Amino acid sequence: MGQIVLDQVTKSFGDMTVIPPLDLTIEDGEFTVFVGPSGCGKSTLLRLIAGLEDVTSGSILIDGKESADIPPAKRGLAMVFQSYALYPHMTVRKNIAFPLRMANMSREEQDRRVQKAAEVLNLTDYLDRRPGQLSGGQRQRVAIGRAIVREPAAFLFDEPLSNLDAALRVGMRLEISELHNRLETTMIYVTHDQVEAMTMADRIVVLRAGHIEQVGTPLELYRNPRNLFVAGFIGSPKMNLLEGAMARKHNAHTIGIRPEHITVSTEEGEWSGVVGVSEHLGSDTFFHVHDTGLADSVTVRADGELDIRHGDRIYMTPRHERMHKFDEKGHRIA
Amino acid sequence: MARTVTAQRKAINTGVAWVIGLLIFFPILWTLLTSFKTEAQAIADPPVWFFFDWTLENYRVVQERSNYTRFLWNSIYIAGGSTILGMLVAIPAAWSMAFVPSNQTRNILLWMLSTKMLPAVGVLYPIYLIFIQLGLLDSRFGLTIVIMLINLPIMVWMLYTYFKEIPTEILEAARMDGAGLREEILFVLTPMAIPGIASTILLNVILAWNEAFWTLNLTAARAAPLTAFIASYSSPEGLFYAKLSAASTMAIAPILILGWFSQKQLVRGLTFGAVK
Q: Which among A143, A213, A227, B64 would be 20 to 30 A from B50, CA to CA?
């Protein structure tokens, strides 16, 4: 069981407030992702939950139990660090068994659990190696193994994939998602990568400067971003944000339209412009279109095999029902 | 482009390195050779090198005249004792400075280092008076404390640099894994810091063993270690170079052997952090 409730939690370092009063409830079994640009306080928030930092004020309830004054060792949470933070002087087996040893578990039970974790994570052949003899992906698996053996109330992940190369990252993303499906334990995952957030989360918490900008499922955030910040942060490539005459025509200060919600044609359309850079991904192509009279550059998605070159004039038609409207303060207009 | 080193250049470098090495080693070699000569051969002009009547006479005389074992035991007591005491103070101090620094930590470290720049003789008078007051003159215990204190800044600094190299995340991981402060220090920090702790111990033993200023000034007969033993063969005995050499050889042999076997560890300790 692992429901985590943050109630009016604040954190300051000296005079600097990193987290202004913040409320958040993470339901048991939920995969929650904290996402935001660097310095938004997402890692600090995770470390407050972990107990590695003390809250300045407010309370943290883990399974209904006030935990703000409980040391990290006693909170029953497991954490996976960005640097893996394995114990270099211990073998993989001892690394994974360490939390069990700290819990004074019997040797047989330790062995049984380590064996089981190793099987789940494909580490059985590496149990007697030292972390230094493993690849990055294997080290991350050991770190995850060390987290799962003691069956914690919740898992905390602090940017666990950012030290891995791109291919491995996609693989580990799937593995962590599968692990969550199997264990059904609460997981809190911190990342600055919105793709990780979108693909893994049950619920995303978008943070900026210690404030929660929006909480919702990936699709809620994608469909109904509450403000310009979330609109610009979620989605890849970024949403086109247009101001000026075009926005006023729709009775808004800013309108947003995602590249995938614009139809591209070589013959006719509502808007037109000249193709600058095109990014060919195979299945899709993203065109960065200039001279539209709307903004410096408008990004559109088109079929990957469309034969349009640099300097060609193209026509674009936005899908009006997928258009987002924002007022002067950047808030969504219903 | 990788730098190419020609065979000729390599040979010259090797030659120069050997010459420098021998120059540094020469005094020790000469002491060793002299210790096997007769007094006449020791001051012979031109000096005799290897072809003389090798004799153990000097060692026998030295052994007869003074109780080597007692000096040796005092040296071991003082070097070992000051190291153990020093580590007991230095490990927690360095630990707290490295892992829970305050905004004064840097200043404290620099202040500690500054005490090493003070000429020792500057505090001889007050320390001597304190020793008289406390009845510590010519006691091994007093000497152990003084030597521990003079080497403490170096110990704390060395350990601090080592501890600094240990990533905080690993200690945090231990905390998350359920380790209390005791377990964290015992099972995670110490094993990772052992190479650093070992070099610090080693260096401190050597420094304490070779310390001559305080040992000569604060001891007389009872607590005198090997440095005093050598000194007793220099001035009052006049020109007995061979015997002085024998005494020196006996005094430096234990530490020389220790240093020889642990040189790898020692070099690593002294250059730690410079090369990763």
A: B64
Residues of A in contact with B187 (CB under 8 A): 98
Amino acid at position A298, single letter:
V
As given in the structure block, the two tokens for residue B19 are 């010459």
The residues, ordered by sequence, that sit 6+ positions from A85 with a Cβ below 8 Å of its Cβ are A143, B167, B169, B170, B172, B173
CATH numeric code, A253-326: 2.40.50.140
Chain A residues with at least one Cβ partner in B under 8 Å: 50-52, 71-74, 77-79, 81-83, 85-89, 98-99, 102-103, 146, 150, 156
Q: For the segment B229-247, what is each residue's pLDDT rounded down to a tens digit?
A: 777 776 655 667 888 888 8
DSSP, collapsed to helix, strand or coil, labels residue A302 as: strand
Helix, strand, or coil (residue A148): helix
Give chain A positions within 8 Å (CB) of B180. 71, 73
Q: Which of A177, A222, A181 is nearest to A200 (CA)?
A: A177
**CATH fold group of domain B67-232:** MetI-like fold (1.10.3720)
Q: Could you tell me if B247 and B228 are in contact, meaning their C-beta atoms sit under 8 angstroms apart?
A: no
Q: Which tens digit of pLDDT belongs to each residue from A9-48?
A: 999 988 888 999 999 999 999 999 999 998 889 999 999 9
Over residues B31-58, the mean pLDDT reads: 78
Residue with tokens 């006479």: B57
pLDDT band of A190, cuts 50, 70, 90: very high
Token duo for residue A290? 């200039």
CA A189 to centroid of chain Cα atoms: 7
Cross-chain residue pair A86–B173, CB shorter than 8 Å: yes
> Domain A4-231's class?
alpha beta
Tell me which of B177, B184, B187, B192 to substitute to probe the interface with A (most A C-beta atoms closer than 10 Å): B177
Residue A287 near residue A293, CB atoms below 8 Å? no
Contact between A125 and A116 under an 8 Å Cβ cutoff? The reply is no
Region A108-124: what's the mean pLDDT?
A: 91
CA gap A286, A150 in Å, rounded:
46
What band does B2 get if pLDDT is binned at 50, 70 and 90? Answer: low
pLDDT at B273 over 50: no
Q: Using CA atoms, how far apart are residues B90 and B87, in angstroms rounded to an integer?
A: 5
Residue B249 predicted with pLDDT over 90: no
Tell me the domain boundaries of chain A: 4-231, 253-326
- What tokens appear for B11 in the block? 């040979």
* Chain centroid offset of residue B2 CA: 39
Put simply, the answer to whether B180 touches A73 (Cβ < 8 Å) is: yes
